[in-house]
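Hello,

Our lab assistant flagged a job as stuck in the queue for most of the afternoon. It eventually completed. Since we weren't sure the result was trustworthy after the delay, we are filing this so someone can double-check. Below is the sequence as submitted and the structure that was eventually returned. Let us know if re-running is recommended.
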Amino acid sequence: MGGTCRSFRPYSLRARTTLGVAGLALIFLTAIGAGVDFLVLNRVQAQIFDEAERVAVNWGGSLQPGSTPQPVPKTGIDLLQLVDSHGRVVTASAAAAGRQALSTARPPADDRIQDRTECSDRGECVMLTAFRVPQLETSELRPVEPRFVYAGMAQPPILAGHRLQYLTAAGVLLGVALAAWVNWWAAGRSLRPVEAIRKHLSDITVSDLSLRVPQPAGCNEHARLVCTVNQTLARLEEAVKLQRRFAATTSHELRTPLTGLRLRLEEAVLYSDVDPRETIREALSITGRLEAIVDDLLVLARLRAGTPAAHEPIDLGALVAQEAAAQAGGVPVHVHIGHDVHVRGNRIQLIRVLNNLLANARRHAGTVVEVTAERVGGQAVVTVTDDGDGIAPQDRERVFERFVRLDDGRRREPGGSGLGLAISRDIVQAHHGTLLVEDSPRGARFALRLPLQREATARADPPRDLRDIGHHLDHLDHAEQS
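-- returned structure --
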């Protein structure tokens, strides 16, 4: 589905952000437009009524007894009428001449001024102020008969229709469209490098993991993303190489005993002179070797998959002394233990490391094995030294690879799996330590270094880069559990 996505689809990030921005812009601009319309209309209306009141009061106050001068408008308030209590027009401005009374409003004495909007049957509206002429003046003109002044003007188009609302709506839609277009353009420009990364990643397949995404200049988010992607690809490439090499080596190591087992069983079936008991004993021996290889592979797979193990405080010195004392018979083991060598770790896994190192040293030693456990520079250091032939410098890293067995090791233990030291190093690395072969005056010297308990507690578990190595052995793990 990812290959058919288009940027204008609703589920694309660009489209979703554009729709979101457009929706927010519509809400805010609509609220602003409605507020502006209200303020504009209210302001225009207030100005007209204020001016009409001023004109009505001034004209009404200028009326003299015995005379009713015709008003001459000097502002936009061009409709002026003086009306008696019966609604008859006494005098009017030129614009209002010949018209009926502009309004039927009759303001009372205690509320002399009223603002009104009067509309005729033809839809023509007039905004006016009705002013009651004070009683003193009306009594001089015509006793006890009130007079009223109407001052106003035709309602302006901005108030008469919905032109302002239409213009505001058009402005809001234009603003929303502009905001959406700007966001669409900005989102497209921002996501263009991401699309380029996607295209480069789509060209990378499992058969060729050597390709990398071009690194852009600078140190922005896109550059950091590309850097992380390339680092992940490098780790993935290395993991795939290790997995392929592991699978090839494993199949070879398993094929050899399986071929031998099949050969023994075929001989027992084809030849009657073959002793069945001897065949069964040999088959059991080969099966035992296969079982040991599979067990070691399962342990290695769990370690490489990053399966967490429970850690606890451990007196490493006491553990070393205990495991050395358990090595009965054979080459003697001399132990030298320092004080307060405490670490945090998984006891079963560390016992396996110590047993592997002790068994390996006793297998190659001539007369004695020396073991030490002490604190050195904030670390717990355990050394296992034999007085055998030693390990050549060029082979000191090879011995930790899977299924690697030197000639001397094959001669001394033909049935070994070649996984003991590989498992030991993985266990030590899972405990944030190191396991190396160091220089020694005679024989081989294995040095195990682990952080002391305080440092081990403060150190966070780093992510394992090759968690997926060994996942192809999961079915073996399930078989073991079942």
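-- support follow-up --
The delay was a queue issue, not a problem with the job. The result is valid. The domain at 307-463 is CATH 3.30.565.10 (Heat Shock Protein 90). The CA atoms of residues 113 and 131 lie 5 Å apart.
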